[in-house]
Each structure stands twice: as structure tokens, then as C-alpha cells.
Write a structure and sequence with these properties.
seven-stranded mixed β-sheet; six-stranded mixed β-sheet; single chain; globular; 17 helices
Length: 633
């Protein structure tokens, strides 16, 4: 077996989001090495004495590429800085010493990813597989299979999803599945107003899903929760429900359950996302913005915005240790949450900004991606699969690790004919990704390879894996704190695209605010990350246009129109409107508000005369009618 691949050091540190710590109240020290003025210039000269606006984008994933691409279309000169030698964020790809492609896990593209679909069309590429069915496995075996719902007759949501998936449940009873119905009310209410969204955000998904039967609030059965809801959420949001905000969890369930019948349909990239999407995207950006528009191997240290009206300054360290300065009119921070914490901590103006103060407290979670190249054919029943509940490595603490595994010989074109190639000793390629992976992160590469093969593959689909199969080659990638975790209380910490008090600084990424006034793509979503980048660029362009006479904006006017998710079906929209009206009534009516406040905390309404009630009964001075003759009252 070949030595598993390790991430390039620059990419590893960036993806893990290791922060740069600077004592509070001090400015960062000036770099000791000479600085180089580094300006990526677009080849076209200005048509007047006014300059084109200059934008610096920090971070090279979906959000960063989206922001840079949209800024170019708005007529900006753009430079994107990323610590990885080949920008791409968690969508970056590498190859093993034997030249085999690997990446930071396989990521799905759901049917509601309209802006990614538009990007692929614009680039003239066809990077996606057909939509696939998926199976979910626990130690009990296959729990359920999700068919491609878009191929079936359309029914009003959620009836199509409930009807068409019902035959595929193997472990859960009908009663357990029906116990999910009370969640429909939560799905209608949680996003009604910003206030309701924040209230749900302060609760854990577990508490909302299981309800509170003692106080009359029904929830899902223990079986439905443990065998389906909890593992599916962990696979979609990289953390178990007890560690997830109810609002964030309901965001995901709403999009996949209540929005439209076919929204749960998923497809995959026909190769690594880096090679199939980001490579042609980068080529198009260089064609539009010049050869230096993307600058990898640059770790941003500080952002200095300066006085109003002056240019910002971004200081980055190149791979050779040289400190470089990039001047800009606008700055878009589009890194992961870990890297954002480091940049804010070392940049006094950002550190002192109230709108960015919460980022330091946004939690993150760990991911492990293992790719196995096997010497014997392995054909999985489904090309894409979810697993949860296994004591990986024999450790009971690892039962909260969930993940996915894929048959890459049927997804990636590169491996489609590997089993029949007589010149290659590989006969199967399988990807195993583990989420909420802190319990296994410390295992060695060899141990993680063994866990992936023995505990996941042989544990889920034993009949499909030959007993004498051997690993010919492998890669093991670790991302400590590499993914945002939407824990209870996180929503109030998330920044918005426009940062109060910093008019030329914008934020993009999966950790920007999501709620009633945001785009429909939410959670750990490639679509959300892309949309956040497009939104940041649009906000930056609006800022530049308001600086009348300062910039030449003649190259603009070609920006992408951001596609919103499809509107709710009529009956769902009507139910949500009713839920919103009820929520507003509760908040405006003192009696209704009192009932809500006293019952939501697990107590009961203080009926008049009850012990501890603020309402005595009878009230003092109540005009009782005179007692009847002979009464002793």
C-alpha cells in the first residue's frame, strides 16, 4: 500500500482555519522581511482619468471564486488571494504520488442549486452525473433508500416524498414515520419572523424534534429520531442534532422535505470539483481579468481599511516568506470561519467592529476524507450512501461520527474503466467521508484506512466487499475545525454581507447570516457559499457606484443575476402566511404573549387562583351576587 497523501502545508493550514492570535488592543507587528508591492492588473486601460475600482478577495472556495467572478463582471480589477497553491477551498483537489485524483470529500449538487447550474452553463461545461438514488445504513443494515423523486409523478409537497419513500423504509414502522407530522408545524413557524428564527436557534434540534409530551408538545418518536433524523442531519450538517441549532436543522429539513418533491434529488461531479469546475472557471477568470487575478500561496495576515475615502491595504505572506501589500478599494473576506477568526484577530479595525465580534465564537467541526484504491472489484448497491451509528475503530465515542461513501467507478469518468484496464492494478475506487469526526481524527492514516474498509464498507455492505480485498493506494485528508457548525445560539453570531461601520468591507461564506430575509440556500451548502460571494460582489459594486465620479464603471453591466430558490407551493405558502400571522399576533397581544412565554419554558400557564399565579381568584372587590336565602356563604 502506498503512503497516504497529505495535504500541502499551506492548504492544510488554511483549510483547518488556524487563527493568528494577537493580544487584544495591539496592532500587528510590521513584517521584518521586505515588502513587495503586488498588484494584479487587468489588461485593459481605463477609458478616462478615473480608475477602475480595485477589489481584493480573500479566500478561494465557492464564495471567493463567486465574489471574484462577479466583481470582474461589475468592471473591477480583481485579485484573489488564497493560502493554497491552487485556490479552491474545500473544493480543491490533489493527486497521489501515483497520479490518482483525490479531493476533500465528495459533495453533492441538489436540484435546487440554480446558481451553480447557471455557472456551469455559462462556462460551457457539463460536470454533473445524472441524479442518483441514495441509501442509508446503520449497524442494523439498510434503513431506507431515497429514490430519484423528480422521475416520479409530481404530488403536492410533502405527500410525494412521504408516499414514494414509504416502500423503501426497512426498519421503521408506519407509526414511527407518522410521528414526524408534528414537525410540520415547526417547519411552518420557525422562519416566520426574525424573532421566531432566533427563538428556535436558541434551542437544540434534538429538543425540538423530540418535543415535550409532558407539556402537550408532540414530537417524533425515539425510533424515528435515533434511526433516521439524527444520522441524516449529521451527514447533511456534520454534527448530531443535540449540537445543532433547531433553526439551522429546520432550514435543511425544510429545503429537503417541505419545499418541493424533487428538492432532495442529488447528483455528483463526474470528477473532482477542482478539475471539472474550478479549473475551467479559473481559466475563464484569467482570460477576463488577466494572468494575476488568482494568486495562490498567499496567506493573508492583516486587513487595514484606513480612513474613509482612502484605499484599504491587505498584507499577505507568500510561500517564500516575502510579505506582500495589496491596495484595494473594496475587500471581500470569503475564507472559512477558522481563517476568518485569524484575520479578524490580527486586524485592529476588524477586531473592534461589533458586527464581526461574533465570528470568534462560531464553532466548527472536523472532517476526515479517505479514498481507497482496491485490488478487487467492489460494486455498491447504490453509488451514493450515508452511514451512522458505527463504533468506528471499536470506540463507542465514535458512534456520533456519521458520513458518506461512494462508488467512484460509477461516478467519476476517470475511474469508469479501471476494472477492465490490464495495465492498472486498481479494480475499484471508493470514497469514505466522515463528519463530526473528532473521535477518529487522532487515528493514524493506516488506522483510518482500516476503519474505512472494515467498519464502514464491510459493516454496511458486507456482501459487496471481497474478504481478501487489499488496498493498493489511498489518501487520507484531515480537516480539523474545517467546517462551520451551526450550534444552538449561532445565528446571532453570524455576520451579514454588509458590515456595519466598515463600508468597503464585505463578508461571504457559509457562515454569513441565514434567516427570513436571506437566500433560500442555507446551511453547509455549496450553493449558499456561491450565492454569498455573488451577493458580496453586488454590494461592493453598489458601494462603488455611489462614489459618484470616483471610479470608471464603464466595464460593468454584465453581472450574473442571482437565482432565488423556487417559491413555495400554494398550500405551503398559505400555511406559512397563517403561521406568520399567528406569530405576529402572539407578539402583539399581551395575553397571547404571556401564554407563549410561560409555556415555552416547560412550565404551564398561571391560571387565576393557581399557586404562584399573579392573578388572584377571586379578584379583590369582585361584586358577587347576594347569597340565596339560607346560604352560609
Amino acid at each position: 500500500m502506498q503512503t497516504p497523501l497529505a495535504l500541502p502545508s499551506a492548504a492544510r493550514v488554511h483549510l483547518r482555519g488556524s487563527p493568528v492570535r494577537v493580544p487584544r488592543g495591539t496592532r500587528p507587528p510590521r513584517p521584518s522581511k521586505p515588502r513587495v508591492r503586488a498588484e494584479g492588473k487587468r489588461p485593459t486601460a481605463p477609458s478616462s482619468s478615473r480608475p477602475y475600482p480595485k477589489g481584493i478577495v480573500v479566500g478561494g472556495g465557492w464564495a471567493g471564486f463567486g465574489a471574484a467572478w462577479q466583481l470582474l463582471k461589475h468592471g473591477f480589477d480583481v485579485t484573489l488571494l488564497d493560502s493554497s497553491p491552487d485556490p479552491g477551498g474545500l473544493s480543491a483537489g490533489w493527486r497521489t504520488a501515483n497520479g490518482r485524483a483525490v479531493e476533500a470529500g465528495c459533495k453533492g449538487f441538489w436540484r435546487h442549486y440554480g446558481n451553480i447550474d447557471a455557472l456551469a452553463e455559462e462556462l460551457g461545461i457539463s460536470p454533473f452525473t445524472p441524479y442518483t438514488s441514495s441509501a442509508f445504513y446503520s449497524p442494523k443494515g439498510k434503513e431506507v433508500e431515497a429514490p430519484v423523486l423528480g422521475d416520479l409523478p409530481r404530488l403536492p409537497t410533502p405527500f410525494g416524498t412521504l408516499l414514494y419513500t414509504s416502500p423503501y423504509f426497512t426498519q421503521l414502522s408506519v407509526e414511527d414515520r407518522i410521528s414526524a407530522l408534528p414537525l410540520a408545524l415547526d417547519l411552518l413557524k420557525y422562519n416566520a419572523t426574525k424573532e421566531s428564527y432566533l427563538e428556535y436557534d436558541n434551542k437544540s434540534a434534538r429538543d425540538v424534534f423530540l418535543g415535550d409530551p409532558m407539556n402537550g408538545r408532540l414530537g417524533a418518536s425515539e425510533a424515528l429520531y435515533a434511526q433516521f433524523l439524527a444520522p441524516i442531519l449529521c451527514a447533511l450538517m456534520f454534527a448530531p442534532p443535540e449540537e445543532l441549532s433547531a433553526s439551522a436543522a429546520l432550514d435543511v429539513l425544510y429545503r429537503y422535505v417541505l419545499a418541493h418533491q424533487d428538492d432532495f434529488d442529488v447528483r455528483w461531479c463526474k470528477g473532482t470539483i477542482a478539475e471539472e469546475i474550478f479549473t475551467p472557471w479559473a481559466a475563464k477568470m484569467r482570460e477576463t481579468g488577466g494572468p494575476d487575478v488568482l494568486r495562490g500561496g498567499r496567506r493573508v495576515q492583516t486587513v487595514e481599511l484606513g480612513e474613509p475615502g482612502s484605499r484599504a491595504r491587505v498584507v499577505a505572506t507568500a510561500a517564500n516568506g516575502t510579505s506582500e501589500i495589496y491596495d484595494a478599494d473594496v475587500v471581500v473576506m470569503a475564507t472559512g470561519v477558522g481563517a476568518a477568526r485569524g484575520i479578524i484577530a490580527s486586524s485592529p479595525e476588524l477586531r473592534e467592529c461589533p458586527d464581526l465580534a461574533g465570528i470568534k465564537d462560531v464553532p466548527s467541526t472536523d472532517v476526515v476524507a479517505v479514498r481507497l484504491f482496491l485490488d478487487k472489484p467492489v460494486r455498491l448497491p447504490n453509488v451514493s450512501n450515508v452511514f451512522a451509528g458505527f463504533a468506528l475503530g471499536g470506540d463507542d465515542a465514535a458512534v456520533n461520527v456519521a458520513g458518506t461513501f461512494f462508488d467512484l467507478c460509477r461516478l467519476h469518468d476517470e475511474y469508469a474503466h479501471v476494472a477492465a484496464d490490464p495495465t492498472d492494478d486498481v479494480r475499484a475506487v471508493v470514497e469514505i467521508d466522515m463528519y463530526n469526526a473528532g473521535a477518529v481524527l487522532g487515528l493514524s492514516d493506516a488506522e483510518l484506512v482500516d476503519v474505512a474498509l472494515r467498519d464502514v464498507l464491510k459493516g454496511c455492505v458486507p456482501g459487496c466487499v471481497p474478504g481478501d480485498v487489499s488496498v493498493v493506494d489511498s489518501s487520507v485528508l484531515r480537516f480539523k475545525g474545517g467546517v462551520t457548525k451551526f450550534a444552538p445560539g449561532t445565528a446571532s453570531l453570524l455576520p451579514k454581507t454588509r458590515v456595519g461601520g466598515l463600508d468597503n468591507f464585505f463578508v461571504a461564506g457559509d457562515y454569513v447570516w441565514q434567516g427570513p430575509d436571506s437566500h433560500g440556500a442555507r446551511g453547509l451548502s455549496q450553493e449558499k457559499a456561491l450565492v454569498s460571494g455573488l451577493c458580496a460582489a453586488d454590494a461592493a459594486a453598489e458601494w462603488a457606484r455611489k462614489k459618484t465620479g470616483r471610479f470608471d464603471m464603464s466595464r460593468g453591466g454584465k453581472a450574473s443575476v442571482i437565482r432565488q430558490t423556487a417559491p413555495d407551493e400554494d398550500h405551503v405558502a398559505a400555511a406559512k402566511a397563517a403561521a406568520r400571522a399567528m406569530d405576529e399576533l402572539e407578539r402583539s397581544n399581551p395575553i397571547a404573549r404571556l401564554i407563549k412565554e410561560t409555556t415555552s419554558g416547560g412550565g404551564s400557564f398561571p391560571f387565576p387562583g393557581a399557586p404562584g399565579s399573579p392573578f388572584p381568584f377571586p379578584p379583590p372587590g369582585f361584586p358577587f351576587p347576594p347569597p340565596p336565602p339560607g346560604s352560609t356563604r
